[in-house]
Amino acid sequence: MNDSIKREQSEFACSADRENLRPKEMVYYGEHSFQMQYKDTIGEPFDWLYIDADTLREQAAKNGYAVQVVAEGEHYDYLAKITKR
Fold first, then answer.
1. Minimal CA–CA distance to 62: which of 85, 80, 81?
2. Segments making up each domain of the chain, as ranges
3. Disulfide engineering: 67 pairs with which of 57, 77, 79, 83, CB 3.0-4.6 Å?
C-alpha cells in the first residue's frame, strides 16, 4: 500500500449504471473521505468534494451565491470564485 495516501472511502465505477454502485450513505458521487499517512504518522480523515462547474453553479444559485469560473485546467479542473448575491 502507498504510504502517502490512504483512501477511506471512494466510489469509482466504469459502468454507466452508477446509481446501483453508489454506497447508500453517499449523497453525491463526487463525495469522498481521505486520510493521509506518512510512515507511522496518520492524519485525521477529511472530506473532499469533486464537483463539476455546472453543478456547483446550480447548487450555489439555490443558496443565494453566484459562481464565476476564473481559470480552467487540462483535466476537468477549474478555479472558481463564489460570491454572495
1. 85
2. 1-50, 52-85
3. 57
The pLDDT value recorded for residue 26 is: 55
Residue 6 has pLDDT above 70, yes or no: no
Task: Show the cell assigned to 70.
Answer: 476564473
Each as own residue / partner, the long-range contacts of residues 81-84 (CB below 8 Å, 24 or more positions apart, any chain) are 82/56
pTM: 0.59
Q: What are phi and psi of 37, to 5 degrees?
A: -145, 135
DSSP the chain: --SSEEEEE----SSS-GGGTS-TT-SSTTEEEEEEEETTEEPPPEEEE---HHHHHHHHHHTTEEEEEEEE-SSS-EEEEEEE-
Nearest to 30 by CA among 5, 15, 13: 13
Q: Measure the CA dihedral 7/10/13/16, to 10°.
A: -160
